[in-house]
Design brief:
Helix content: 25-40%
Order of helices and strands: EEH
Strand content: 5-15%
Bound molecules: zinc ion
Number of strands: 2
Structural class: alpha+beta
Strand order of the largest sheet: 1-2
Number of helices: 1
């Protein structure tokens, strides 16, 4: 019996595809729209050097 490949889910927060509005596929991982926004915030703050704060994913 062959199942579909593992159901895609966000590799950062673990949300399943059905729980996200968007799931972006990488080579060996996926990321959802929530995590991309958080990642973008991290990149912004790192690049501007204003605040260096750790933003945890799945902190809901
Ligand atoms: Zn996510």
């Amino acid at each position: 019996m062959k199942k579909e490949k593992n159901a895609p889910q966000c590799s950062f927060c673990g949300r399943l595809r059905d729980e996200t509005q968007m799931l972006i596929a990488g080579i060996d991982a996926h990321i959802c729209e929530v995590c991309t926004e958080q990642a973008y915030d991290i990149v912004k703050s790192e690049l501007t050097g204003k605040k260096r704060q750790v933003v945890k994913t799945a902190s809901i």
